[in-house]
Structure formats: C-alpha cells, structure tokens
Amino acid sequence: MKVINEDIKNKTFKKVYLLYGDEPYLKKQYRDRIKENITGSDTMNFSYYKGDKLNIKEIIEMADTLPFFSEKRLIVIENSGFFKRSNEELAAFISILPDYLVLVFVEEAVDERNKLFKAVKKEGYVSLMNQQTESVLIKWIGKCFKEKEMTIEPAAIRLLLDKTDASMVLIKAEMDKIISYCGTRTKVNTADIEAICSTMTVSKIFDMITAIAVKRQQEALRLYYDLLAQKEPPMNILSLMVRQFNGILQVKEALAMGVNSYDIAKSMGVAPFIAQKYSSQAKNFSIKQLKLALKDLADVEEAVKTGKLDAKMAVELMIIKYSAKKVEMEHVG
Known about the structure:
The chain is an alpha/beta fold. Helix content is 59%, strand content 9%. The strands form two sheets. Strands 2-3-4-1-5 form a five-stranded parallel sheet, with helices on both faces.
C-alpha cells in the first residue's frame, strides 16, 4: 500500500495494479483514490467492469482506445475471477499495455501461480489487502477520532473491535454513528460504544462458541435465541458456526505443530487478536471433538436441506450437545 500512496503523491502511476484480499474497506479506498487522482469525475476516460462473465475482447478493445482530451485512460475490473483460472489472452496483453492506460484489478482471492497474476506482478504492482492487525486498527481508529478533534479510551477501542469483528467497513460505519451521537463531547468511552454500536452477528457467534467451549449451556442458548429474535436465519447461524469451528480447528492443529500465533493469523488471513480468540477457545476442545463437530454440522445441514430436521432445532441440538459437561463421541444424526 505504501507504493500506491507514493504513486498517488507523485502522480506517477504504473500501468497495472492488483488489489486483492479480504478487507473490502481498503480495496475500495485505494480503488477510489486511484480513480480520483487519474480521472476524477471524467467519465469519458473511465470504464468499470464487474463480475465473472466479462468479455475479454471488449475490455482489450476499450484499453486500446486512446483517451479523449486526457493523458490517461483508467479501467477498473472487479471480482472477475480472472486470477483463479487460465487467461492466456489477458496475461499476454498485460505485457504490451499502452502508456496512456492504467488498469486496476480488484479481487477477493487469487491463485499466485496464475499467469495473469505473474504478469501483473512483473509489469505493475500487486497489493494484498487483508484484515489488518490489532495495532494497525487501534492507530487508525485513534487517528479517525483525532481528525474530528476527539479522543477514544483504549477500552472503548477494544470494545469497538469486538463488536465489529475488526472489519474496517463496520468500524467506519460505527465511528460515524458515535461521532454524531457524542455531539459536542470530545471523549468517547465504553458507555458510548455500548449505547450506539450494534453487536454484529459474527461477534455474537464468537460469544456463543465461547459459552459452548466452557460448558455454559444456558448462556449459549440465550445468545442463540437473541440471534433468532434479531431475525437471524438459523441456517446462517449454522454456517457461521461451521466457520468458527473450522477456525478453531486450524489454530488447534497449527499450535500442535509449534506454529506461532503471528504466523497462524497470517496463514488464516485474519487479525492476530482474532486468531488469539480461536486459540483461547481451542483450549476447551480436542482435535477429535472439533472434527466431530464439523462432521455433525455438515450432517445436520444436510438433514435440514432434505427436510429431515427443522433448522431452528438443528442448531439447538448442536449447541446442547457441545455445551454439555461431557460431549459424547457420536454423531447427532
């Protein structure tokens, strides 16, 4: 990202950029900054393509079109999937991009063995934009409030991170609400966070799994019923439980192999403090239990889809089984 900042500052843009990763806020921010500094409100020399059914020949034809009363033409291609499948034609075109063109790809996942990925890396700049570390987010939050001539207590920052699952998109939305709520007050505390910030579904799932892990069955069920009261679909809750148990298992296995927490977070593509949450939950499960839980979750999902089990009851059964004082080593269904 430092390279892109320098390019924007110096107005010396590379011919092609790839912004990828699981932090949408950063990708959107840098995409928009590049656009603002190359074409601004000029629509004649800006083209935007999105989706996995794009016509490559059409894109190349547009790229070969000289800019209209401007030095640069900008093309943004988003969520194309081009970097996950063979794309010889576009990979070859990257090596002969005209000087007036800036091409920006915005993707979630890529295959670094892909020829297009290698071509972009050779001819331009590739930037991985994943969820940021806790320390980076803390500095960013503090800076955002400072720009509004406000301060925020460290405990309030921690609570904000917990409630938003460290997503910059959600953090920014909640900060805007907090600033409006505080009015003329210049110091933000935990009471403000509790009063304004919604506890996101993912955060509640974290709490629910923690309650399951430490065998607080009534608390786990209460959190589940709270989610249902908020109109969260049981199948969505089930899906998030799968993600949580899968994360706990990844951390558990990595720790067993002696991998440190920083490398675990990096390999999983999550903030270190989230990996630490998985680690704390992992202490209460064996690898065998975690694998069984994932098998059970897959089984009950199938049972719901085939009409053999009610969705609400399916999740309830899983919570009851894994929050019991002793987890039986047999499948639910």
